[in-house]
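Notes from the 1:1 (GR / supervisor)

We went over the backlog. Supervisor wanted to see one worked example end to end before approving the batch request, so GR pasted a single chain during the call. The sequence is below; no edits were made to it. Supervisor asked that the structure be written out right there so they could see what the output format looks like.
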Amino acid sequence: MFPGSNKGAGFSSGVRLRCAARAIVGGAWPSAQVLCGVTGRPDCGSVPSMHSNPHSVSRRTFIRKTTAATAAAMLPLGQALAAEGDWIRLFDGKTLDGWHKNPQRIGHGTGGKWYVEDGAIVGEQDPPGSGNGGILLSDRQFNDFEVKIDMNHDWGPCSGFFLRSNDKGQCFQVMVDFHDAGNVGHIYGEGTGAFNSRAFDINGRVKDGKLVALTGDNVRKPGEHGCVYTCTPAEWVKAWRVGKWNTLKVRCVGKYPRITTWLNRQKVCEFDGATFKHPTYDREKVHGILGDKGSIAVQVHGGGGWPKGAKVRWRNILVREL
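Structure output shown during the call:
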């Protein structure tokens, strides 16, 4: 949140893997790609060579494996995703196919400005400095899942990464408040009570208009933030790469979700929606608003705290259902 603001007052604020299905033919998500578990690139199928070792792969084995790979390729998308370990690329790096802005005005505005530049989704207020923001949501919705996303934001914007979001922007939010007295990696109730699991703040040191270092300050006690686990400010600062792309990973599982976040492999926060205690958190009310699944979304915060011309950038968005 911006210093002095009430994030959520009256409105929502604020690859390594296995390939069970090697390709997708048909399905309702044409922009999705199954990724190779070795290279991270779209996989065209892994078929054993008949010439690499003729004693290790019989003709019968070759035919059986080739047939299985072909059958997997012909599965509908929902079945192809059934095996845990299939990572899907949500953003093709070229277009916003598979994504949409909030269809109606929300507290942050009519949607903000979103476009693709240098292989990344870029977001800013529309027009710059106007206070008009919004969210960009995935068309596809998810229940239990893991997601990875790279981010490289200007210093100053208040943004967020939304989980199980509806088109109104109500969600569990991973805070990406990249400004003084901000926070990146803890959980906030966006439009669902404004509950906050922030364990500490981040602050920046700027030289000649450029962010050169970050600190972690204003540490909360366990009873104040309510997290099952949180990293220390020193661990967070060590993990963050100033001026470079940083990778956020999130795992979200359960009716009252248990949400775990990592930054560049540093575990940051573990939030348990079944046991979390906060004056404004009501797990049944939140579940009634959000249900069991929703979109993944990124945010341009509305209002005057967003620096004029500042931008947020997201790329390499990978998700797998659990």
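Supervisor's comment: The first strand starts at residue 88 and ends at 89.
Batch request approved.
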